[in-house]
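Propose amino acids for all 529 sites.
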């Protein structure tokens, strides 16, 4: 249990892990590589299910590597999963919450035990560097644990209310939170661990049963989580894992009337489409938790520590190749420190190592797929025409890059603030940098986007307080060298967004999250005194 040594891995501490982390990762990576090409089933009602059509999961590092063969689930599979989850709900909802959290804590421990293997899977299918991969796996375990602890701290959300002042009667009241039913979880490619296991764990702790559909680019990590849930003793039908295209299988699930609630994490357009469909087609309003995109800005004051700001900005701009919803994709700097900071950001960017992310030396891996690489090329053309590309802008095709989707980290200056790419989420290793006269102008520009997910500030403590009072985003950091806008962790910085970045206004891994998966009932009981 390497991850349970004294060192606690989080995204804030991952830059200097003990040597043991590397050894364990390498040995699990070798194991995973020896299973390349293996076929993986769906898991419905606790049973392995295969469909007629399959799809290959090829690595973006080298598209000749077939990580595994997965099932292209059909409408029938969607129906079978809903039926299984609906049936299992009868038992799971009445299983005491103390027993539910016992099983889910066991699942969290198994996920943490397996974090090197799961982390290696994320390196291979997402392109995460090793610490990001292990980090995502450990975060998954911690998100599940956090939901268990919340349930426990709130005594199952069973609360005695006031006694009515009825003369001659004893009129007692109780508020209880109870599960909804079958919960659909749809996750994105970039955090297939945390954004699958986090919401699914919360839904199950609350007493719902789950159907999980992962992104087609990254089905292996969610499969490994499904195995962990099954191995931990989550009963048949409580957690169902189905794979296939969002446009067909995902759509069939969203359209099913027996889905009681959904957690979707992904792009704004797809999420809003699901929201509208779910609302229009259902008989009544059902809970819809949306965690959507970001266009996160770092704002730097003239009083900032330039070295700290440059380090945090580069880490957040290019960690996971800029494909984090929390990535720093905009940098806004007060004039007096603009030249010095830009120079340092470019220097640090030029030192970043790119290549096979399973290799310890590499900070950046590939982008997710061919479409992302094409978007990169198109955006760079537009940025070259309207701004000044200070570094990067190149697709890498030689040597070890030849069979993968590699793009160089790109910094763009002098792009007019009215340009559409100051507002559009590119979701690639591209960051635009701009100058402002003062912090008031800087915060206006920071807030002038559809999104409100994360933000970062560098300056004095007093300025930071002012910044926190005015910034429109869910997770906000000040003077953080570990990452200007990235690095949230359950129990430390719960993660979620405002405006176009999220629908619930409550953050995952925080004190208000688990309740989203439950409805309130009041029990009033009257007796003659
Ligand atoms: P995406 O293209 O929106 O896909 C997300 C998921 O939706 C995938 O599982 C996809 O399946 C599925 N899907 C697509 N069309 C669907 C439909 N019509 N019905 C049901 N499901 C459908 O997003 P992505 O490219 O994987 O992820 C990147 C985006 O996620 C970015 O915008 C990023 O900011 C956002 N994100 C947000 C957060 C947050 O916490 N706010 C965290 C991470 C990522 P297929 O893969 O099969 O198409």
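Proposal:
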């Amino acid at each position: 249990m390497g991850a349970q040594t004294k060192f606690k891995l989080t995204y804030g501490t991952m830059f200097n892990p003990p040597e043991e982390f590397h050894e364990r990762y390498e040995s699990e990576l070798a194991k995973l590589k020896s299973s390349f090409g293996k076929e993986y089933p769906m898991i419905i009602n606790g049973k392995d299910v295969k469909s007629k059509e399959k799809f290959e999961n090829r690595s973006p590092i080298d598209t000749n590597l077939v990580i595994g063969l997965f099932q292209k689930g059909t409408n029938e599979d969607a129906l079978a999963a809903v039926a299984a989850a609906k049936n299992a709900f009868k038992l799971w909802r009445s299983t005491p919450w103390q027993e539910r959290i016992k099983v889910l804590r066991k699942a969290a421990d198994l996920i943490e035990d397996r974090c090197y293997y799961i982390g290696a899977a994320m390196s291979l299918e997402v392109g995460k560097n090793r610490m990001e991969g292990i980090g995502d796996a450990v975060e998954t375990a911690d998100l599940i644990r956090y939901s268990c602890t919340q349930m426990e701290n709130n005594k199952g959300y069973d609360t005695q209310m006031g006694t009515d002042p009825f003369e001659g009667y004893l009129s007692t009241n109780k508020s209880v939170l109870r599960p909804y039913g079958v919960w659909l979880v749809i996750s994105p490619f970039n955090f297939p661990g945390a954004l699958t296991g986090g919401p699914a764990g919360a839904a199950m702790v609350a007493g719902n049963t789950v159907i999980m559909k992962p992104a087609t680019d990254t089905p292996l990590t969610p499969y490994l989580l499904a195995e962990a849930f099954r191995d931990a003793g989550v009963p048949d039908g409580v957690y169902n894992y189905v794979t296939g295209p969002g446009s067909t299988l995902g759509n069939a699930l969203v359209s099913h009337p027996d889905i009681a609630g959904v957690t979707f994490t992904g792009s704004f357009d797809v999420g809003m489409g699901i929201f509208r469909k779910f609302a229009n087609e259902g008989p009544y309003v059902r809970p819809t938790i949306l965690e959507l995109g970001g266009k996160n800005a770092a704002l730097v004051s003239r009083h900032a520590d330039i070295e700290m700001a440059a380090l945090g900005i580069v880490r957040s701009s290019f960690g996971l190749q800029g494909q984090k919803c929390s990535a720093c994709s905009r940098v806004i700097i007060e004039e007096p420190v603009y030249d010095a900071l830009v120079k340092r950001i470019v220097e640090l960017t030029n030192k970043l190592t790119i290549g096979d992310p399973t290799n310890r030396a590499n900070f950046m891996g590939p982008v997710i797929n061919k479409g992302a690489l094409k978007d990169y090329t198109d955006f760079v053309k537009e940025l070259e025409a309207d701004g000044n590309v200070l570094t990067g802008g190149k697709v890498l095709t030689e040597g070890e890059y030849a069979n993968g989707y590699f793009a160089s980290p790109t910094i763009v200056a002098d792009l007019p603030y009215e340009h559409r790419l100051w507002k559009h989420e590119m979701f690639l290793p591209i960051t635009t940098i701009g100058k402002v006269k003062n912090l008031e102008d800087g915060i206006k520009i920071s807030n002038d986007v559809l999104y409100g997910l994360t933000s970062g500030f560098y300056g004095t403590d007093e300025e930071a307080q002012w910044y926190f009072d005015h910034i429109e985003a869910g997770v906000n950091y000040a003077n953080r060298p570990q990452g200007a806008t990235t690095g949230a962790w359950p129990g430390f910085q719960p993660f979620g967004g405002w405006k176009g970045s999220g629908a619930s206004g409550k953050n995952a891994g925080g004190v208000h999250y688990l309740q989203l998966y439950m409805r309130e009932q009041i029990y009033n009981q009257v007796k003659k005194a």
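The chain is about 40% helix and 20% strand. Residues 130-153 form the longest helix (24 residues).
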